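Narrative of activities, Objective 1.

The group set out to show that a structural description can be obtained from nothing but a protein's sequence at a throughput compatible with the screening campaign. Below is one input-output pair from the validation batch, recorded exactly as produced.
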Amino acid sequence: MLAIAAPSFNQPSETFIHDHVRNLVPKQTILICHDGRGADAFGCPVLADIDPSRSPRIFGERIVNAVLRRWRVYVDPSLRGEAGRRVKTFLKTHKAAAVLAEYGPTGCMLMGASQQVGVPLFVHFHGYDASVALRQPQQVRHYRRLFKIAAGIFVPSRFLAGKLGEIGCPSEKLHVVPCGVDVSRFQPTVREVGRTVAVGRLVEKKAPQLTIEAFALIAHRFPEARLDMIGDGPLRQRCAALIDRLKLGNRVTLHGAQTSERVAALMQKASLFVQHSVTAATGDVESFGVSLVEAMAAAVPVVATRHNGFVDTVAHGVTGLLVAEHDVDGMADAMAQVLADPIRAATMGAAGRRRVLDHFTQDQSHDRLRVIMGLPVGSSVRRARA
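Output recorded for this entry:
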């Protein structure tokens, strides 16, 4: 039995977590979370309302913790009291063979309970927890404790592996496991002329406004080109205002959040996929760029930035083109190169699909995680899923 822990299991953008729940160990998975809304939909036993804040109820403990923090002494972030007992009972009752904590802070929260019941803890870092969080000295101290206790640490890119290595994660515990995609969901695109697709939340690190600006620079050269932007977020109004100001209302569509089926349907019409991700002012970065891999699976050439794991995913000049972060002119030029040369675009798209089949399939990713965690691999898992 695999216990998967996360803050919640109801975030539409966290498809990688949903994928782990459904496919790593089908019918042999239990869930631990703080926000239990929607978790029952996975058909797994759920332990919810695990409060990560762990506010001490005893006044004396509050005083001690305040003094320790004041003098920067290590304060164990593990669950305590009733919450800790509930987690340990849950793991014992369901005979958990391993715990997979999604995000570093979740791993810190569970390291005491997993250690006390003798269940190996594996922690999957995804992005902000290996970038923004490293600016907090207390969190770094928690991570260093976690690195000693955890049986393994997973990251989706070499970039994030380097970040954790810099703060002391032992190389023998650190595993780069790229996110995989279900290639069967993506058939090669029919390549509608000029159809350009972007997928991602409308947030600072995705920089959707820079994608719109780059498209605006080439729109007059390609009157048939259209930009479909899938995703929602706090920058939606800014993007809508920019589209109006640039008079692109009939050329750029903000579709909002869409189902994975709708995303796949748009990919299979695309001639080009674009994503201008950047490092946010807070230091937040992308985890891996699953949408890039999905586009490549659909044989769509990619234009993106040299950002985090994107350089591991996109082979520059082979499966797409990479430009510097914030280089709007460079991105516009790269988009124009692909749109102006359909033969080259088709060649890049075919190379991208081959690259996904060779390196980034869901089965490859899952089998690597299972091997490291000592879980069943291959045909036995696929029979259970069926």
